[in-house]
């Protein structure tokens, strides 16, 4: 059976192009984004066990580093980019606002696709979200001299609804109904991939007008913000001696922001133009994340094949008289 993950980047680009060229059919589907995210999280939960999170508690260093880099690197990178590229004030504020937000649920999805440590990714997202209640307003004030108030209860309830409850439901089925999980296990990856493609198409359609009018410098700032955060997250995690899987997970978590929160705060406290970087980030980090996840998954599979080949050769050599 064809794995959609093997052609995921091509599919992501294709659905993005179609949604951008003809967004009208998808404009009414914005209400489907949260249910689709919940479904993806449920699929992830089916692949996890409670001991995966207990393992994270026994080794908290990767979580601590991921969350620390999230709030050190991304705000600083946003501030540097808006000054280096001389962006207009409202757009610059939007880039910084994205940078001071917590990690987004998209990071969990891309970690899943990349074959990373999903339990680690989810732990970092939850912890950065909790810290964001304090750090997002403070960092925005520090870097942009702007003030916002964050609805603590709304953020916690949304996170619980989208991430925590579906994950717990999946873990519960994995534990108490293993036969059911086994029956659907082979379909999980493709089902989650279809849901991710639907989200990408909807996000692109909802932001088609903004994408059509965006300036080159704004697009460059958004792309560099994401790419530099991901690259530095991976490099610094590698420098600290974490495993390859942990480094990939931290890199994805650091580079992918809760751009939905950024857009909502921009529209509530500032202007639609300030929300533009967050809207672009929503589109860009899904595409870049899809490409990166597929590349890392391909590397992992190639490494496994190399090890299997080496093992066969070794056994053959040992069997010779």
List strands and helices in order, with pairings.
Elements: H1 8-21, H2 33-46, H3 50-58, H4 61-84, H5 89-99, H6 105-114, H7 118-144, H8 152-176, H9 178-206, H10 208-213, H11 216-239, H12 244-255, H13 259-269, H14 272-319
Helix pairs in contact: 1-9, 1-14, 2-6, 2-8, 2-9, 4-5, 4-7, 4-11, 4-12, 5-14, 6-7, 6-12, 6-14, 7-8, 7-12, 8-9, 11-12, 11-14, 13-14
Please describe what this structure looks like.
82% of the residues lie in helices and 0% in strands. The chain is globular.
Descriptive key words:
321 residues; mainly alpha
Outline, from the CA principal axes?
A: globular
What would you report as the Rg, rounded to the nearest angstrom? 20 Å
How would you sum up the major sheet?
none
Strand content bin: under 5%
Low-confidence stretches: none
* Mean pLDDT across all amino acids: 82
In short:
The protein has 321 residues and is mainly α. It contains 14 helices and no strands. The mean pLDDT is 82.
């Amino acid at each position: 059976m064809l794995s959609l993950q093997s052609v995921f980047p091509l599919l992501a680009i294709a659905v993005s192009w179609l949604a951008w060229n003809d967004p009208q059919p998808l404009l009414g589907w914005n209400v489907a984004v949260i249910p689709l995210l919940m479904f993806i999280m449920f699929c992830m939960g089916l692949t996890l066990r409670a001991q995966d999170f207990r393992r994270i508690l026994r080794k908290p260093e990767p979580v601590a580093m991921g969350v620390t880099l999230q709030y050190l690197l991304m705000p600083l990178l946003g501030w540097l980019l808006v000054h280096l590229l001389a962006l207009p004030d409202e757009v610059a504020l939007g880039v910084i606002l994205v940078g001071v937000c917590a990690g987004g649920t998209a990071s969990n999805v891309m970690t899943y696709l990349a074959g990373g440590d999903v339990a680690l990714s989810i732990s970092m997202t939850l912890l950065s979200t909790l810290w964001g209640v304090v750090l997002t307003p403070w960092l925005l004030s520090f870097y942009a001299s702007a003030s916002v108030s964050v609805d603590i209860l709304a953020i916690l309830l949304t996170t619980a609804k989208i991430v925590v409850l579906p994950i717990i439901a999946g873990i519960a089925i994995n534990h108490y109904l293993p036969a059911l999980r086994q029956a659907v296990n082979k379909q999980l990856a493709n089902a989650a991939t279809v849901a991710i493609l639907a989200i990408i198409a909807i996000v692109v359609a909802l932001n088609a007008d903004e994408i059509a009018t965006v300036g080159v410098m704004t697009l460059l700032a958004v792309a560099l913000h994401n790419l530099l955060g991901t690259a530095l997250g991976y490099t610094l995690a590698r420098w600290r001696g974490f495993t390859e899987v942990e480094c990939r997970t931290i890199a994805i978590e650091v580079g992918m922001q809760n751009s939905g929160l950024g857009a909502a705060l921009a529209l509530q406290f500032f202007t639609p133009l300030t929300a533009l970087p967050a809207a672009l980030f929503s589109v860009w980090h899904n595409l870049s994340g899809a490409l990166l996840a597929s590349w890392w998954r391909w590397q992992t599979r190639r490494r496994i094949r190399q090890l299997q080949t080496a093992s066969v050769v070794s056994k053959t050599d040992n069997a010779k008289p």
